[in-house]
Amino acid sequence: LGQPLFLVVATSHLAARKAVRLAKVEAEAERPILTIDEALTAGSRFEDGPRVWTKGEVEGALAASPRRLQGVIEIGGQEHFYLEGQAALALPGEGQMEVHSSTQHPSEVQHKVADALGLSMNDVRVVVRRMGGGFGGKESQANALAIACAVAA
Length: 153
Hints:
Elements: H1 13-21, H2 36-42, H3 58-64, E1 88-92, E2 97-101, H4 106-117, E3 124-127, H5 142-152
Parallel strand pairs: 2-3
Antiparallel strand pairs: 1-2
């Protein structure tokens, strides 16, 4: 709910509103996966599954430990109120794209825009005015807007 499904590029606000009315969306209802336990039961994993990093002999160290705690903890996600909205400007060149983006991760914007346009990463230049104050919301959330602007440009 609320996710963008398509991009409208128009010469005026009225033309864009008229174009949106022409959209036809077909979707099938699916049972949502809302918890970690539901995801594990369904075998639904993000990317290629969990990565486990270990150093040393964990089981032996735990067995020899004089104190051990056991239990379950669940922490709900938290979203911050971002002080600055997402912004992007795309300026096409000869086989290249310059994207001005309000991001904390310019190399990810560069990678995603290049992928969307079928360009090499060295053909996409990302300009960031300033960094900080995004609470992580500028790390990957800037990608969709930057890509939309680049595709439109």
